[in-house]
Structures are given as C-alpha cells and as structure tokens.
Amino acid sequence: MIILLISACGYHLRTNNTLAENYPKIKINISAQSLLKRSLVNAMLSSGVELLDKHEEGVTELNISKDSLRKVVQSIGANNQVQEYRLEYDVEYNVADTSTKSIHLEKDYSFDIQQIGGGQQEEITLRKQLAQDMAWAIVRQLSLNKNK
What is d(CA 92, CA 18) in angstroms, rounded to the nearest whole number? Predict the structure, then answer.
C-alpha cells in the first residue's frame, strides 16, 4: 500500500550519476584562480571520474571558457543604503569541442550595514555554495547530454 501511495504521488529516487560511464577520464581546462575549480574537481571525483593533468588517448577535455561571478545591488532602503544583493554566477563550457553550453545561477541575500562582518561572511559562504551548486549542475548536464 505504501509503495502504491509513493508511486502515485510521483516520487522517484534520484538516478545514479552516469558521468564516469560516459566520460571515464577527463582533463579540466580551467583557470587556477577560479572559484569553481576545487568544487568541480571534488564533484568529478565523487562521480567516479579519473582526472588527468595532460591530454592522452581516450581523455575527454572539459573547457571552462567563461567563469563569471557578479554582485548586483538588488534593493536600496530609504536611507540610500543597500539592503539586498544578488550574486549571479555564469559559466560557459564545452566538452571535446562540442557546442558551448551555459549555466546561470543566482542567490539573493540581505545586507545590514550594522552587521557588516556577518554580511561579509554570508557572502563568502554563498559564493562557496554557488560554486558547489555550479559544479554539480555541470556534472548533471554532462551526464544527461551524453545519454541523448
């Protein structure tokens, strides 16, 4: 009865990530200073992909051509002080000289000038979260695109 109820509501377990089956060996071409680099490496390794530093036979190249994180003023209060910001993260990539794909992520956060230390820490945390979310979005897209 429980299985019938769960399946009737549309609930499905997340399928396994097939990235390692599709691309067993990957070389990532990304700037060393990129916020995305560490998160992307961790996501790839968690997906079972072997990462290489040089191009060899059978190695797929993942090229990150755009890696842009912007902070945009979202709202200003009555005292002409910023109350809310938005972090916008754009990445463009291609795999093995295929067409370029892009991903856009954004997060809003409040800012209080009275708590400037907390606001700066929140921004740092959000930047790291965006990088992790972006890395996993790339992994999911790569897993799906090869299957199509």
Answer: 21
pTM: 0.80
Amino acid at 29: N
Tell the CATH superfamily of the 14-147 domain.
Answer: Lipoprotein like domain (3.30.160.150)
Summarised one tens digit per residue, pLDDT across range 82-98 is 778 889 999 999 998 78
Return the amino acid letter for 117: G
Lowest-confidence region among 29-43, 80-94, 125-139? 80-94
The helix/strand/coil state of 35 is coil
φ, ψ for residue 122, nearest 5 deg:
-60, -40
Q: Which two tokens stand for residue 140?
A: 């999911």
CB count, 10 Å around CB of 90?
15
- Mean per-residue pLDDT, 29-44: 94
